[in-house]
Design goal:
Layout lengths: L9 H7 L3 H4 L2 H50 L2 H19 L10 H23 L2 E4 L11 E8 L8 E4 L3 E4 L2 E4 L1 E7 L2 H11 L1
Parallel strand pairs: 2-6
Antiparallel strand pairs: 1-4, 3-6, 4-5
Helix pairs in contact: 4-5
Length: 201
């Protein structure tokens, strides 16, 4: 029976196998660690960016939802408000149809005029508290978004484009137009226009 002076033992082989980690120099280990840290930092930055984008989108959705809800709540009564404005204008026309105040007029007429004027003031106050605003545009610059020009009239006392007279008021609901004002707009006198053209020529 032969005896091998150098037995091939698995344990001996393991003990003699070089350790991969020990095979790296300190500089290589540092480089590997630095590279891994850089990868982790890049991943963290990417995750943070995605999270911030998601938060911004969520915030935008919430804000948009709040705006839509507010709009729906504010303007759901727009058709009703338009009808109420028509009633307010009819009341104003009724007051305007009364005879002008004069000395010696019947007391009943005085009381009717004062009573209707008081009702109109209270009615207008109720509308304003609910976001319905009445505006007399006389003297303002004509705005096609808020006013409807019914006529143009030459005037030396008003700048061209100025509203000389408002036949009806402008009505809005929380800033949104309900009914435009019907107005008369000033324009430059013909002689003035002709003079300007001759001067230019």
């Amino acid at each position: 029976m032969s005896t091998d002076p150098h037995p091939h033992d698995g344990t001996a082989q393991t003990e003699q196998a070089p350790d991969a980690a020990n095979a790296l120099s300190p500089e290589q280990l540092m480089q590997a660690a630095t590279a891994r840290i850089a990868e982790l930092e890049a991943e963290l930055a990417e995750m943070k960016d995605r999270w911030m984008r998601a938060e911004a989108e969520t915030s935008n959705v919430r804000a948009r939802g709040r705006r839509e809800t507010d709009d729906a709540r504010q303007y759901a009564v727009q058709k009703f408000a338009t009808d109420v404005v028509e009633a307010a204008e009819n009341l104003n026309r009724g007051i305007g149809a009364l005879p002008a105040a004069s000395a010696g007029e019947p007391e009943i007429l005085v009381k009717v005029r004062e009573g209707l004027a008081g009702i109109e003031r209270n009615f207008t106050g109720v509308l304003e508290r609910n976001g319905i605003k009445k505006d007399d545009p006389s003297g303002q610059i004509f705005d096609p978004n808020m006013h409807q020009a019914m006529a143009e009239q030459e005037s030396e006392a008003h700048a061209p484009g100025t509203i000389m007279q408002a036949w009806t008021a402008c009505w809005t609901l929380h800033g949104r137009l309900l009914k435009p004002a019907m107005v008369v707009v000033a324009k430059a006198p013909t002689a003035e226009i002709g003079g300007s053209l001759n001067t230019t020529a």
